[in-house]
Amino acid sequence: MTLSLRHRRPRLALGVISATVLFTAGCGGGGGGGNPPSGEGSELFTVGLTAELGALESLNPWATNLVGGQLARTMTYPLLVQLNDNLVEPAWATSWEASEEGRVYTFELAEAEWSDGEPMTAEDAAWTGEQILKYANGAAGLVAYALQGVESMEAVDDTTLRVTYTQPVPETTLSLLTAFNVLPEHVYSEHAEDGRALKTFKPEDDLPMVSGGPFIATSFDPEGTTVFERNESWYGEEPSVETVGIQVFQNDEAMAQSLSNGDLSIAYAAGSKVAASVEGDDGLEVREEESASVDLLNINSSGNNPDHPELQDPVVREALSLAIDRDELIEVELDGFGEPGRSLLPPIQNAWIPEDLQADPFDPDAANQMLDDLGYTVGADGIREADGRRMSYELVVWAELDRIAQILTRNFAEIGVELEPVIAPDYDAAVFGPDGDYGTLDMVFSTWTVDIEPNSILDIYTCAAIGVLNFAGWCNESYDEMVHEQQGALDDEQRAEILGQIQELLLRTDRVALPLYHAATVHVVAEAWAGTDTDRVGPGFWTGATSGG
Amino acid sequence: MGRTEFLLRRLGFGLMTVFIAATINFVIFRAAPGDAATQYQQCLTCSPGFRDELRAELGLDRPLLVQYVLYLRDLVQLDFGTSFQNQRPVSSELLGALANTLPMLGLGLLIGLVLGVAVGVLSAWRRGRATDVVLMSVSLFFYSLPVQWLGLVLLFAFSGSLPVSGIEDPYLRLTDPSTMEVVADRLRHLALPSATIGLVWFGSWALLVRSSMLEALGEDYVLTARAKGLRTWTIIRRYALRNSLLPIVTLVLLTLGYTVAGTLLVETVFSYPGIGLELYRAVQNRDYAVLQGGFLLLTIAIVVANLLADLLYFRLDPRIES
Amino acid sequence: MSLHPGIEPSAAPERPSRPLSSTLRRATRSPAGAMGAVGLLLIVGLAVLAPLVAPSGPNDKVGGVYDPPSAAHPLGLDDAGIDMVSLLLHGARTSLLVGFSAAVIAMLIGGTVGMVAGYVGGRTDSVLMRITDYMLVIPDVPLLLIAAAVWGRSLWGVILIIGVLSWAASARVVRSQTKSLRQRGYVQRARSTGARDSRIILTHILPQVSPLLLTLAVFAIANAILAETAIAFLGLGDLDSVSWGRLIQNAFEGQALSRDAWWAIVPPGLAVSFLILSCTLVGRALEERLNPRLRGGGHLSVRSFRIRPVPVRQARLQHANRPDGAL
After folding, report:
1. Which of A309, B7, B165, B220 is the most exposed place for a label (fewest CB within 10 A)?
2. Residue A240 phi/psi, 5° resolution?
3. The domain over range C19-299 is classified in CATH as 1.10.3720.10
4. Residues of A in contact with B87 (CB under 8 A)
5. Contact B273 A7 (CB under 8 A)
6. Is the pLDDT of residue A240 over 70?
């Protein structure tokens, strides 16, 4: 499930994707010490999130795509399926069948009702799906990806839902449905005169809201603490935790303090800084999960920047890559919680990365040699000249990356290349340039967090994404063809081979982007809740939690 | 010029200021790079049309002049627009935040005032002696501290014993607390931010009170009082302090404009959800709607405070007349 | 002989000679002032010598993240493994650069506005003072935030913003002094000889106003440095250069607190306060030594700071200094 962040901030853990807080039974006393409000800490599960990642802007899925909102919604709005360690499992749908070679999926749903007593049927799901498809390119733009490739959704009867795709898809595509929250038609249809009305409707203004999940939101504070209480009319197994609190912290320091004081059961996707500061504290466990993200240095491959033709040369790009001290980046920026950038695909998609594609080593000597061999001599100021042009490049970044920019500047200086970080509040304008043709771009930093399916990240470098997300400005027909081909590949081996070729083209032949590092997803869990299964996404998470001895 | 005319002039000045601030607001933010849709620029899972939809929803696709007129019209109706971040009305966000800031600021100013007056009076009383020197040095020292740094130091020192973020314990209400418990909880959360503000401010007030006292102590009526044999402390209490009180209060009102910076910094350090933190977050998120509204709100507050100060000046100094 | 501050002096026939140096001379007799001056010189000296004296550069990683103090690095390392002592020394340069430059800008604008308004009088005076009043009322820090957020972060941007937002306080004071100077005999004589106004301002008014300007400048420097720490703390300062304000911000962002890295937090703050304290002491000494006739009234120190509580004027002197009813 791609819980994508709209922000350009790095480290927006998508740990959520492959993780999700799971309350599971743990032994140990109390809810982590500190101030459990009720007598037994086992009744309250407190989740901490940082504001940039987790501000609960609204409980309406159309309004926000931050992790906090998504977490909250797995508690209140039913999902057809859920994830357990990247495997798709039943949630509201007790089973499903594929027909027409995977073009149609028929889901059998459990009998259920909403918290206000109204029956929860396939009709709600079909209605929700229809609305999303109708406004997919507008008001429903934040949730439409869950139904990517879906042609229609219809309710065969109260407990049977038929989902038809435009072409056959493998079962793993169903993992996208973990972002498809079924909305109560009887509540939302009043605001369905157009997509905008649906998007701007705020269910949290009328608490307690109508819920179809294990919990109901009883108080709402987008930048503070939102409290959820057990939903007695939920169809599934009753959670042993009575109350859940999602607390949003304005900065890492406040969250770290809260953790140290024992006030949190889990700091979800806390990040490396928080983890590093509480490492070694009693009663806290730092959990590092395989990275679902990649941070890249994109090099302008549009050919439209007349100033630096030497940057188009893959040899120059390789030299630049060899000059980067990835270990230092990981140490300073990630406090060690990460690995060197190996491919466009992050480690959770390891299965699709060829064995022989490894991260470039740190070898400034070799880099210097390569540039020397090209005849780019070092000038008096320490900067090389390539055919009379100073090798001085601008790197578009955003403000929080200044440490990374510093390290890269230093690294490149060692091989006679000058790097000037440029902070761009409006990224698109800086990257695409005034004429929209990448005419002023040298290099640009980007970060992506994804789920287990490679398609979304591969799409970034297609021609269709030029002027949208394709920050390198690279348009290559054979790349596009291969991406399309692997989408339809039904045989894993065949698909792996095509993917290998794709990565070879992107990262070795043309070197469009230089992978820097993969930031691990880091959670901090209180020892009492150590049984938390952070690999789950969906209601199964919340229902398993207990604490106490 | 008569009193009424003067006040009307001041009122007019205030309104002009607000209008100018509103226009500066509008111009700055329209000239700014990026807008509400900028935050979705690197969204991997967003539909391409979503950003246009968002702009249309917020009325950002209309011609500038139209936007300006609508903006002014909304302002007159006290509608400050909608936040880019969470699409809630800016006015309710800001007012809610302001309601959080006022107790903290009030307590902080009170602490600063009490400390400042105490130190200033004591210093003046013991002028030239060791007490005076020590107190003045301490005042000067605290006066020179960057407020955010003092906040960090206090946070460091008290992180185990006092709450270091937020306005209340978020889970307290689940235990059905008594009013006393709620108040106590709030006070505990107010303690550090208010203390920071108070400590940083008392220094300058102490200096002011001290010199004000010294001047007052040099007045004729004080010499007379001394000649009559009254003790210094009685003199201070009966004459100097009473005469200085109104100017001090007036000073507080005038300095409210300068408290904004300190409040912002303190709320950032202590994650205290007041108007300072609201503005800080808005800056980080490029939420221009909230920044506009906040800027305007603060300007209005300062204008009002200045007007109040002018009213007090009249009571204070009967010599003010044309 | 000190006249009551409320009365405008008018008939002094001769202009005092060498006002600037006499003020300085008197100021140095104050022990507090001397201490402040020494402190200031010390910091300036260290800043100037920083590249020679600092153990390493401001970007050189010499160890691990937040390494504690050791013999090699008496103040430990910061969150990027850079030596704190070097950071403090290099940071002094940036902080002082910002302080001095912003103060110069503020004094240039404020001084010019004040002198012109006070000398020319009439409509020009009204207009200029109205502008000054607006500048005084508009909340500066939000404007600062907005400007930095909108136009990006750069060192000279920060300096400019601080300078532009702090000239108003000094303009008023300079104006009152100019007004009183204008009445002096030698000024009247110069005017009657038909000399150009700008020349008169430069040769007759400016030298007399310079002690005041100097005093205001010292306070402006302190104010600018505090403003810079505030801007840096809110994440809007220049990214390429290290300043003390930035060090405090780095400590906060890098969670020095929860990592118990007190060496990353305490020294920068103390350095800033030391500098501010020195400026304040020097400024107060200068202020006390200003020829009482020429004083603008009230306390300049508390007046000039914008990030400190600033009583604009003491009520007692209100009447004398309030021109045509405007605040």
Report:
1. B220
2. -85, -15
3. yes
4. 57-58, 63, 200
5. no
6. yes
d(CA C93, CA C51): 10
User: How far is C-alpha A102 from the chain's CA centre?
Assistant: 26
| Closest approach of A277 to chain C, Cα-based (Å) | 5
CA distance B224 to chain C (A): 20
Helix (H) or strand (E) holding A44: strand A44-50
User: pLDDT tens across B7-43, in order?
Assistant: 788 888 888 888 888 888 788 777 777 777 888 888 8
Q: What is the residue type of B57?
A: E
Under 8 Å between Cβ of A343 and A353: yes
DSSP B4: H
Set of chain A residues whose Cβ sits within 8 Å of the Cβ of C149: 425
Q: How confident is the model at residue A48, as a pLDDT?
A: 93
Give the C-alpha distances (Å, rounded to integers) separating A47 from A238, A262, A263.
Answer: 19, 12, 9
In chain B, the percentage of residues whose pLDDT exceeds 90 is: 21
Shortest alpha-carbon distance between residue C174 and chain B (Å): 21
ipTM: 0.83
**Confidence band for A8, pLDDT divided at 50, 70 and 90:** very low
Return the top range by mean pLDDT from A155-159, A280-284, B84-88, B316-320.
A155-159
CB contact under 8 A, A429 and B33: yes
| CA–CA separation, C184 and C121 (whole Å) | 15
The amino acid at residue B58 is L
Query: C interface mutation test: which of B7, B9, B105, B143 has the most C CBs within 10 A?
Result: B143
Distance separating alpha carbons of residues A184 and B137, to the nearest angstrom: 67
β-bridge mates for residue A266, sequence order: A47, A525
Q: Which of A20-24, A99-103, A480-484 has the lowest mean pLDDT?
A: A20-24
Residues β-bridged to residue A392: A418
- pLDDT, position C10: 38
In this model, does residue C310 exceed pLDDT 50?
A: no
Q: Measure the CA–CA gap between A90 and A78, rounded to whole angstroms.
A: 11
Say whether C150 and B33 touch across the interface (CB within 8 A): yes
